[in-house]
Amino acid sequence: GYGAVEAAVAQATLAICAEALGAMEAAKALTVDYLKERKQFGMPIGKFQALQHRMADMLIEIEQARSAVVNLAGALDKPRLIREREVSATKNLIGRVGALVAEECIQMHGGIGMTGEYALSHYARRLTMIDHQFGDVDHHLERFIALKSA
């Protein structure tokens, strides 16, 4: 029965990783809109190069997370060792990128990013909770290392 449970947990992990990817996309979209609307020195803050660089870095990380989710979806039917390595690699990456996206988006929004009335705070909290479901980044890093040497 353990193999069936492990396969079900792999599917559930894929589902929450896909949910996290959607939350990252939504947080990114909110941030892009905010950077276009918020003005400083008579121009949108999205025109400032430092913020553009931060958004570009975040976009790259989100795309890497997307690739990991797609890879995991393709690995669910593979042999156990391959599947479980992909599960741990993806869950670790999603946790790290989710934390980065939440932190960067909140910082670029300033104080409004953490108010309960603004959707970004809910996405940030959900990304934090997803990291703790089915093992956090540290657990999956250690698990990946153990599976790699198996």
Keywords:
150 residues; mainly alpha; two-stranded antiparallel sheet
Please explain how this structure is put together.
The chain has 150 residues and is mostly helical. Helix content is 79%, strand content 3%. The chain has five helices and two strands. The chain has a two-stranded antiparallel sheet. Strand 1 (39-40) and strand 2 form a beta hairpin. Helix 1 (2-37) packs parallel to helix 3 (80-109). The mean pLDDT is 93.
Structural class of the secondary elements? mainly alpha
- Based on CA inertia axes, which overall geometry fits? elongated
Mean pLDDT score: 93
**What percentage of the residues does DSSP assign to strands (E)?**
under 5%
Radius of gyration: 17 Å
Query: Given the structure, what is the number of helices?
Result: 5
Spatial arrangement of strands, main beta sheet: 1-2
Biggest sheet statistics: 2 strands, antiparallel
Architecture blueprint of SSEs:
Layout: H1 2-37, E1 39-40, E2 43-44, H2 49-75, H3 80-109, H4 119-132, H5 137-148
Antiparallel strand pairs: 1-2
Helix pairs in contact: 1-2, 1-3, 1-4, 2-3, 3-4, 3-5
Offer a concise description of the structure.
The protein has 150 residues and is mainly α. The protein has helices at residues 2-37, 49-75, 80-109, 119-132, 137-148, and strands spanning 39-40, 43-44.
